[in-house]
Design a protein that fits this description.
The protein is about 75% helix and about 0% strand. The chain has about 270 residues and is an all-alpha fold.
């Protein structure tokens, strides 16, 4: 027997959820919306007793309202809460649901809702800023990467590093650099920034130094001299080579060796 969705069915089902009565209008609207969609798709659907369109719409709404209420309680707007709850159940993936939820929001609303969501995960402002940044540039696994960034950033600060170094190091961690390369990139980025370079310039200098550490400082020396002309850049590159040589030799370089090295790089 086909069962029609009635007001009493909706009221009784909502009462069983134990959710605050103020959310009943949203529950009712969602139950009716889902029932209408199911009816349009297959008005005669009935898989088994209590598995007709009316009962299925109630079951789906029971799942939906839990997520909707949770998002509202975090401080999200109704549009976000509805979209997130609906698409999270559909996609079964939080990140995908968020991307769909913000599609119809303007830029200001988008940033506000993303910040609310990020704060619900971790109230650290470093995490929140990184989370929203990664989302804005279309990264995947945003939560995990933001957590790694925040953890690495805070570690650097605890070690007495500057905020510039900490940012660059944590950025390299997000790019899955090896530990040694994260440190080299952060040093190079910090030096470049302190000499007035903007973020793209500092990034390119840091990447080159990291590539040189990987492929060989001497092998890339001529390319370095072609691309980087500033004395401070040459001094830093020399420092990287000096440090590598001293690690290999397990001793400090002599004054004569340093002078020869300086001539090779700065000459």
């Amino acid at each position: 027997m086909i069962v029609e969705l009635t007001e009493k069915m909706i009221q009784d089902a909502f009462a069983k959820t134990g959710i605050d009565q103020k959310y009943y209008p949203q529950y009712e609207a969602e139950a009716k919306r889902r029932y209408k969609a199911l009816q349009e798709e297959d008005p005669d659907y009935e898989e088994s007793p209590n598995k007709d369109n009316a009962h299925v719409s109630i079951d789906l709404t029971n799942e939906y309202i839990v997520y909707y209420v949770a998002e509202i309680e975090k401080g999200h707007c109704q549009q976000w809460a509805h979209s997130f709850a609906y698409y999270f159940l559909l996609e079964e993936n939080e990140e995908s649901a968020i991307r769909i939820a913000i599609e119809d929001l303007n830029e200001e609303e988008k940033q506000k809702e993303l910040e609310i969501h990020a704060n619900s995960i971790n109230i650290d402002p470093i995490f929140v800023d990184r989370y929203t940044f990664l989302f804005d540039i279309g990264e995947q696994d945003v939560k995990e990467k933001a957590e790694d960034y925040c953890r690495s950033y805070r570690k650097c600060i605890e070690q007495g590093k500057s905020t510039i170094y900490a940012h660059a190091y944590a950025d390299a961690v997000n790019e899955n650099y090896y530990e040694e390369f994260c440190e080299i990139y952060a040093e190079a980025y910090e030096v470049a920034t302190n000499h007035g370079q903007d973020d793209p310039e500092a990034y390119l200098f840091g990447v080159f130094c990291t590539d040189a550490a990987d492929q060989g400082y001497w092998l890339m020396l001529n390319k370095f001299k072609t691309e980087f002309k500033e004395d401070w850049q040459k001094e830093f590159y020399m420092l990287l080579i000096k440090r590598e040589l001293e690690q290999e030799e397990k001793r400090p370089l002599t004054a004569g060796e340093i002078k020869e090295l300086r001539n090779d790089i700065l000459g």
